Structures are given as C-alpha cells and as structure tokens.
Amino acid sequence: MNTTLGQFNSLAIVFFFLFIAISLGVTYWAAQKTKNTAHYYAAGGNVSGWQNGLALSGDFMSAASFLGIAGLVSLNGFDGLIYSIGFLVGWPIVMFLIAEPLRNLGKYTFTDVVAYRLKQTPVRVASAIGTLAVVSFYLIAQMVGAGNLIKLLFGLEYELAVVIVGCVMLAYVIFGGMIATTWVQIIKAVLLMAGTLLLAIIVLSKFGFNPIALFDAASVKYGATVLAPGKLVSNPLDAISLGMSLMLGTAGLPHILMRFYTVPNAKEARVSVMYATVIIGIFYLLTFILGFGAMVLVGQDPIKAIDKGGNMAAPMLAEVLGGDAFLGFIAAVSFATILAVVAGLTLSGAAALSHDLWVNVVRGSRADETEQLKVARAATLLLGVLAIVLGIVFKGQNVAYMVGLAFAIAASANFPALLLSMLWRRFTTNGAVASILVGTIVSLVLIYLSPTIQVDILKHSTAIFPLKNPGLVTIPLSFAVGIIVSLLTTERAAVEGFDEVEHRIHTGEVV
Predict the structure, then answer these.
(1) Has residue 491 been placed in a domain?
(2) Is 299 a domain residue?
(3) What is the reported pLDDT for 469?
C-alpha cells in the first residue's frame, strides 16, 4: 500500500496543535487552583470517582498499549492477547487489595503507606530508589516512542520531537500539577476511546459486524497459526513470568498508585478503579480487533516495512479506512497519549524526590508549604530535562524491553513491600528495605542478563539468564526476603503500630 507516513501531514499537525492548545488552556485554569502541595500532588482530593476512573484509564492506556498491542496482534495474531490480558487482570488486585487501604493510609505517594508504622528515613530512601527506577525506564520508553512516532507521523526530526514532548509536558505539570494532569488524562482517555471505538466499528463493518468473519479472513490470508497461541511466547515459564509481572506490576506502578490520593475518600477510590477496569477492558478488546483488522486490511509486509515492530499498524489501518483525515486524528491521539502518560510519570517521580526524599528525609518533615511547592516544581523540571536527554541518548534503541522492565521492577520492589506493610503485623523496617532493594537490583541484573538484552540488543548468541522477564524469580524472591529479614529482626514499634494501621485501613479514621 502507498502510505503518507513519514511525510508532512497538515491534518495531523492541525489536530496536534488543537490538543496542545486545549491542554495548555486546561493548565492555565489549573494553575489558578494549584496553591499548595495537596493541590500539586493530589488535586486537593477533589476529583470524583468517575473522573478519576477516566484519568486512571488515561494514565494506563499508554502508547505501548494502543500502538504496541495492535502491532503485536497484527504480526503475531492470538498471542498478542497475552499483553492485553496481563495488563487488565492487574486491576482486580488493585481494586480488592490496594485502592482503599492506600487512600486511607497515605497522603501523596505509596511510600507513605509502607513507611506508616516503620522508620521513615530508610524506607523512604529505598522506596524512592525503586520508584525512580520504574519511572526512569517508563520515561525512556515513552520519550523514544514519541520521537519515533512524530518522526513518522509529522515528518519532524527525532530530536525536535522529543524536545517538543518534554517542553509541553513540563509546562502543564510544573504550572498545573495534578489538577492539570488529571484533566489532560481525562481528555486523552475520551479521545483515545473515541478513536479506537470508531476504528474498530469501521473494521467490523467490513466483515458484517461479525468478529468471527474477521478472524476467518486472517486465517485464510496467513494460515490457522495466527489464531493459535505459541507464536510470540512459546516457553511456558516465559509466559508465567511475563503474566506475573504484568499482573502484579500494575499494583506497584507509582503513577497509578498516586492517583488514589486525588479522590475524597476510600469509596470513591473503589469507584474509580471500577470505572477504570471497565474502560480499560473495553479498550483492550478493541485493540485486538484493530490488530486483526490491520493484519487483513493493511497486510503484515507493509506494516513491517514501515516499522519492523509493528507499532504503526493502528495509524496505517486508520489511513486505509479513513484517509489522511483519520490518520491525522489517530496520529494526534497517539501523541496526546504519550504526553499524558509522561506527565503522570514525571509527577510521580517528582513526588518521590521532593515529598519522600527532601521533605521527609532531608528536612525531617519541617518544610513549609511554600518550600515544598518550590522543591516539587524543581524536581519536576529536573525529571523533565532528564526525560528529554534520555530520549535523545537512547535514539534508535529497542525500548520495548524497558516497559517490561518497569513492570518487573514495580512487581518485585514496590508491590511486595506495599502488601506486607498493610497485611502483616511482623513486617519490619529492615524487611521492607531489604525487599525493595533486592527486588529492584535483582530485577535490573536479571533483565540485563536475559535474552532480551544479551541476544536481541547486544547480539550475543546466548544469554546467562534464560527467561525474557525476571518476574517468576524476582517477585517470590522479594516476598521471601521481606518475610525472612522481618522474622530475623524485631521492631516493637512496628508491631504495636499495626493495630492503628488495621483500624485506619478499614475506617479511614486516625486512632
């Protein structure tokens, strides 16, 4: 097929600047309301359940979800669904285990919960390390993705695209904080769902609104193997490891957990997860339709010719079905998706630097509101500049593994410590620190030693660690280290403080 991808697309530019104008307008409005750290980090706790549900789904439906999963399905068929299901099944865990206790116990970050009855300094330092590791790898993936996307869709230079993403994101995070980020996420979620739904409806209309007919057409064109598992993940241990990381990593992502402080109470936190789960579930089912639609209507060879990873499958499908106008809209939505996710990530990283490290460790909780807000904005600027630099440095690299790494770290470092601190009386400061640091460091080491890096990136013939994702090893290891170290140490204050934690988890009241 003849495609205009990689050429200047005036309609895409119009849609892009329209979204930028709207988001900057939202930022100006939000800046008037952002007067203190509660507004900056948590929107003053004034976001309703359904609004936060939309924002949560906007935070979670990244470019990797929209472009990546559609691309995986278009090139690998049925196996692409493992990512959709893996991302989705983490949400019931968030709903039943995390959302309510997190809202009742914390203030701005999940570290508030882990450190609630433990010694503040060591826990906050360890948690900040884990948080920044997750945020950094997620940021690299998003920024490099943005550069490649804009290079293909708008015809701009890669470096310029990365700088534009970074500067626009910085504008609305620094000035508007969580209020602006929340509304940009909501706008982006509505646009993304509308675009995805419209694209899926047009695809299904080509097959009499019968998904079975679409799947049959795919099997006729590329063989029955596209409807069978095993093409993308053939090793059962790899499948289990990937599934564990995607499922439990959701409950440990700092930018997702931070959103539960934007609602007024625990009930609204649960409501927001319910809305997010429904929206995300529908979205992932639609990306499956888009993937098979692209496979049949665009073809695997043209998709691979533009991008061998298949990431441009959805925009190419939009072009085939709706011409330049639809391509322009989907391109702008994809860009909005990256902007919004980068904003949420930067804000959670800034919270770790300013709230966890500066305010609670360096200043010993003695910083006033003005100082806290200045430090928060400085931390945001620092992370934004870092994101731009990393995006440019990692130009041309395969960054798919970085998203998997972010989930693996989140599942191995953040999730075990968070769960144990809320549910186990004997959990100690040493146990928490050991669990977080071991989970973070071992995940990083095993990912580096895995086939993803050693074979795919460094082109070695074999890898020392056989699994592509370390979750199967690192998640149980992190739990085990936290439990064993806690059993070997005693901490009377931590044990005595558990009753207060338990009471507050269920009631939201301070004892």
Answers:
(1) yes
(2) yes
(3) 86
